[in-house]
Amino acid sequence: MRWRWVAVAGAVALLLLAAAARPAGAAWCIARSGAAEKTVQAALDYACGPAGGADCAPIQASGLCYLPNTLAAHASYAFNSVFQRARAAPGACDFAGTATITLTDPSYGSCTYPASPSTAGQSGSTGGIPSPPSADAGGLSPPDLGSGDDSAAAQSRLAAAPFLPLALSCLLVYLLHTQRRW
After folding, report:
1. For 16-159, where are the E strands, in sequence order?
2. Would the CA dihedral through 122, 127, 129, 134 be positive or negative?
3. Phi, psi at residue 62, to the nearest 5°?
4. 3-class SS of residue 100
5. Which parts of the sequence belong to the X8 domain (predicted)?
6. Per residue in 155-167, is it b (16+ CB within 10 Å) or e — as a string?
7. What angle do CA 93, 96, 101 make, to 5 degrees?
8. Residue 167 phi/psi, 5° resolution?
């Protein structure tokens, strides 16, 4: 009987660890490395425009995410703003093939990338669309901006993430209700 409670306590601990490991829906949309600059610029223009509705204030010259002043960094922030506002819906991170989903937070220094619709900022605050120099202009760069996970694989892991706590909960219920002696 004592071993049963040890197993139950272990299942509860695993359930809590799985739930705390990563918030549900924690995914970001960033610019895909190797995408053509012209296409990325057009996608950035769209994201920061009225149709895209991204909060582009942080990537303006006085914003916390202006540096590094690169196309990839600015596009990543804008793409993620649109993605989060769309509640991370499948297909919301494409931008003509110039974007990808990552499960690694791309935030750096004082630049925090939104991770939910409630933190994605206000639309209509573009204040002009930035046109950063080419991606190889130097400066400080956020970690791994162009090395996001493959979109399909990341979306698959995102969809499966809620099932681990569910599976552990089922195990816990089974252990509590089983009549078998250990």
Report:
1. 28-31, 99-102
2. negative
3. -100, 5
4. strand
5. 27-113
6. beebeebeeebee
7. 25
8. -65, -45
Altogether, the residues listed in the chain come to a count of 182
Place of tokens 């939104």: 114
pLDDT tens across 32-51, in order?
A: 999 999 999 999 999 999 99
Nearest alpha carbon to residue 121 among 41, 63, 72: 63
Enumerate residues 6+ apart whose C-beta is below 8 A from 167.
Answer: none
Q: Residue 134: what residue type? A: S
Domain segments of the chain as ranges: 1-22+161-182, 25-160
Q: What are the Cα distances from residue 101, in Å, to 39, 98, 142?
A: 18, 11, 16
Contact predicate 106/80, CB 8 Å = yes
| Residue written as token pair 């995410």 | 65
Q: Using 50, 70 and 90 to split pLDDT, how confident is the model at 69?
A: very high
